[in-house]
Amino acid sequence: xxxxxxxxxxxxxxxxxxxxxxxxxxxxxxxxxxxxxxxxxxxxxxxxxxxxxxxxxxxxxxxxxxxxxxxxxxxxxxxxxxxxxxxxxxxxxxxxxxxxxxxxxxxxxxxxxxxxxxxxxxxxxxxxxxxxxxxxxxxxxxxxxxxxxxxxxxxxxxxxxxxxxxxxxxxxxxxxxxxxxxxxxxxxxxxxxxxxxxxxxxxxxxxxxxxxxxxxxxxxxxxxxxxxxxxxxxxxxxxxxxxxxxxxxxxxxxxxxxxxxxxxxxxxxxxxxxxxxxxxxxxxxxxxxxxxxxxxxxxxx
Length: 301
Fold this sequence. Notes:
The protein has 301 residues and is an alpha/beta fold. The protein is 46% helix and 12% strand.
């Protein structure tokens, strides 16, 4: 297996839908193309923001194939794997292989709260069942399963587990990962409003929600941080921050799809039981986004 060279900004791509909740493959592909044109270095298809757990197996395959086709090898396309059991996850992994995905972003088993021993077994089962490179999505806030740095030592024997999307909401975790695991894993920031801290302390990539709506700014922030232009990075980060906070709410899908709509990058339509925002909640998000648009900085080349 060729070593994955994943890095940079990778939007957790929205799955675009029609008003009735049906999949809009053309708009999904068009959105992916806009993000690639803006300079992102990968696409995460059918992750949380892609409404993975709201899609049928056939819909997941259709969305993935559409994104792989539009990417055309310009950037890697990584398929989100979020299933109830290890066997179901392996079925989706094999689907991703056939559909042309370049890798997998794997979550713990859904619904059931595993302990670390069970989660390690789950990820091990997937690694043993596929040749694709794997990014483990570690998010105990969202999924109630937390793998600590020493747990990743147990998974290091699998050559195809290559990356970790660290979403512990604790910027100290990146330093702990480096201290315990060295350079064994490619480290990605997975929490939008901790991105800059994580870039400065070990993350070489960013799986990002806001990069759907502001891909140029997301790429610019990452590049500033990695070229040690910290003052400029901080200024851009402060402008982005009110929108970055939207990525950490239980309604992040609805919030960020509304941001996409306001920036012309997509539509707000979601699949029930999610519903488009209304009332004071909608007005609050619209105010945050409009304020950002009104003060949007001109980006240097």
